[in-house]
Amino acid sequence: CIVITIVTPNFLSVSNITNVFTQVSVNAIIAIGMTFVILTGGIDLSVGSTLAISGAVGLLLLSQLETYS
Asked: Which superkingdom does the taxonomy of this entry point to (predicted)?
């Protein structure tokens, strides 16, 4: 990160930091949820498949709307 900051002057800009937080937010929410599951002893490895199927269902529903077609 230090080298990229020196080479790219816009690396520490507000828009780039906002973009990084936006990209990381979904993974962070899933990681926090999995942390609670693992700490309570109910380890469940099906989070990835649940995320994938919910994304697929969401896309199918959006494709049926006239606004996004």
From this structure: Bacteria
